[in-house]
Amino acid sequence: MNTLTAYISDLRLTSRDSMSALGRWWWSIDHWLLYATGALILMGIVLSFAAGPASAMRIGIENTNHFIIKHMMFIVPAIGLMIMVSFLTPLQARRVGVIVFAVMLAMIIAALLFGPTIKGANRWLPLGPIGIQPSEFAKAGFVIAAAWLMAEGANAKKFPGGLLALGCYAMFAGLLIAQPDYGQWALVTAVWAIMFFIAGWSWFWIIALGCTAVGALYMGYLYAPHIASRIDTFLNPASGDTYQVDKAVEAIRNGGAFGHDFGQEPGAAADAVKYQLPDSHTDFIFAVAGEEFGFFLCLVILALYAFFVCRAFMLAARKQSVFIQTAVCGLAATIGLQAIVNIGVNLRVLPAKGMTLPFISYGGSSMLATGLAIGLILALTRKQPGHMSRRETLA
Amino acid sequence: MLAWLTGRRSKSAKAEIIFDGSLPEMPAEPCLPISGRTTLVGREAGRARQLQGRIWLCLSVFVLIFSGLALRLANITLVSPEPEKVMVASRAIAEPGERPEITDRNGVSLALNRTVTGLAIDTKMVWDAMETAQGIASVFPQYDPSALARRIEDKKYIILRNELTAEEQRALLTLGLPGVTFPETTKRVYPQGALAAHAAGYTIAGRGGVAGLEFVADEHAGEGKLASSIDVRAQQILEEEIRAGMDRFKVDSAWGVIMKAKTGEVVALASMPSFNPNEVNDSPADHWRNRAMQDRYELGSAFKVITAASVIEEGIASPETLYDARKPLKVYDRTIYDFHPRREIMSLSKVVQHSSNIGIARAALDLGRERQREYFAQLGLTEAVKTELPESRDPDLPLRWGPVETATISYGHGIAVTPLQLTAAISAVINGGIYRTPTFLKVEDQTGASREGRQVFSPETSAKMRLIMRQVITDGSASRAEAPGYYPIGKTATADKPGIGGYRDNARLSSFVGAFPGYDPEYVILVSFDEPHGIEATYGYATAGWVAAPVFGNIVARMGPVLGIAPAHDDLAFAQFMAGLRSSEEVTLALNDQIDVSATASLEVGEEMDDVARLLAKELGP
Q1: Where's the Penicillin-binding protein transpeptidase domain (chain B) (predicted)?
Q2: Which of A32, A367, B257, B359 satisfies CB 3.0 to 4.6 Å to B325 for a cystine?
Q3: Prediction ipTM score
């Protein structure tokens, strides 16, 4: 026993001392974030086994394992991308982020002009055999670019960082509305507001922008009757087709505390609500988790996202650079808000909006983009490595 | 480029605003108070510390939101009970063999049992796995002989096919393979296919009937045939006409209900898109949903009929009472407009005919919230309709039922009910005032007297409403609903669809609810089209008068002859319309109001009038 402990401590020492690239990475990366991410990925794989066959059956795909296999095919490159990105120094991360933002904006425009119209929106850009959704990737790039500009604006009075960040936002928001993708637009707006707040803009600016937004809404409410009725109905979500959300709540309720046991009989299993849920493998996977595994697993999923966001925010609070703080908080807020909106819709506390559950929902673009975002968080929250120049750490 | 990506210092990267040795100018007014450092790096670190508070604030908000979601999750899964599931679990399920045949009201089969022969291999009996496999592969080329042989060696019992044709069975028998067996099983078949699919429902192995009449069939195991109220002829007409309307106005979903006015029997029920119960899994789950019973919709102006009947019954107004619809009506913070403003003072009858929101809202405000609610409750609009079928949905009533809601509900805004629910309520308005819960089982006594019912309106009120609703077609918004000889009555209903975050522009629900023959209604019909698109022939209009009303008219014109309702002569129809009214005084009033029930021409005073008077005298007695 003693020898084993000695061996392990020896191993730790050597790997810490040796400072190979991998060793440096392992000892500077935040392990808690890594564990939480790993747990989420595992959860996604387990749930793909629950939701995948039901979805495949509903859509009429012969191979019931279709979505499970595709899930695996996407999650591996997503993990790879995440780890590669997490090797970057903060300076490199900033550059990568800005480049990604610029390239993805161009691709969104290309998708708007040349992309196919799917379900009434132009969100997809076909690239050879696969289609990608550039707006998913653009989110992470947008956070980095806006954080950079805000930080520069906060540091150097002469530099109009705030205005430029607002410009970035306006450009991205405009493109999202043109698609149209109101869910992503709302998400990006919320993330931008959180970053603006964190970047340390004076309360004067925060209140001024807040008042402008509220004022615009109020004027709309007063003078445009259709906006008024929209807001009224939003506050009192009346009738109409709430089939999906009702089914989701029914599924979650079915699960109870420990999940619904449908047994081995295929007929009985076919009665599960998940077979009646359109999009059970993407937007309503949380409902499937609730039906299959019950309250406690859902609580674990919620706790994992909450833990991830809190951990990232806490690490950000300790950092010495406005850019890193703003960027990490923005990226964590993106992940957290996406989870909140998705779960909120499943629990019928938010109006239905298509939003994926990061790393759990099926979807190639969403998974890779989540890999990019978490990779950037990992890269920016690494412990300040002594060998790096101050310039590279952006401290 | 590579150097830039990897972060090595290069000349072009000078623009980076990182401490590079030289001190920049001090900002004149820093955004945040700065702790006493002087270098840029020191200042930034100081600022970064300042931001910690804000980060913690954001973090707390996130924690709060996540906790809120966790509470909601606990509330759904642990606290709120699930009554439906308990009920289903304790239900007795009919064995496949004793599941009764389901027929329509005339004995036409909707669902029956058929014995089918399958193909299985009892591997213990097999002599030569490869020979057996090759033999089966010679009849079913889709099986790979070597793979099948391996399965035969591994498994004890293999079920290969659930259903064989006689030829296939013969071919296999002639091969004389030991171990190849032909197990017989009972299969549920639906001879009408997709016709009346939602009413018939379907079964799931191990769970019995889970939808439609199949659910009811479990309770009637071993009792012989189960006669439903459905009439396949009416069903066929309803589905064909709805499909034609859907094609014409490029509609994705639509639904319709036909009910017997006197007994409450549902004669036909359609929900589009539909499915084939023989192959349930070939259609998406969305198609299995019975939109007429499981979905609730804001159905709009059809509610005006209910409001009008209520004020007449309460004696607050008569069909001739005048309402001011010259200007939009302001009720607290809400202003009520008319869709086609006529800007005039009009009688209650005209208010319904021309579908004036302002006029009917005024009438509803006279009625008041309490009485309005009471009538809605009496008409079964405040709670889910309980038929024999498992499909049902709670109505969506306003959270706060104040004066504004009273006004908007009077024309069907802000209340969502199932289409079947509204059909039953309208039936009570026109059938002499008796509400009967809809039923899907055949009722022998066609007067309806054997079924429990409640008198909501007096027969006189009902007669007045029939006249008003007749004028909607002869003289109002629904001239295209006319079916000569059947004197249909009804009301158009065009409703803006509520979407996420508000009512949607140009997303409408076009409905028509009516009955025929108008003077003594036998059948109540509702048809709705979800998001119709205007076409050239309708001048781009997609309102109920253009979309749903003609479909209703076609259904009446086709149903009448098939179901043995003879077209009536004008005079007789007129006399019957008048017969329900209480006194000759009211008849005179109605006549003075130029009632034109014949729709062929306005009544001329003169000889025709004498005929009418004679007929009336006969009807009303001395």
Answers
A1: 257-555
A2: B359
A3: 0.84
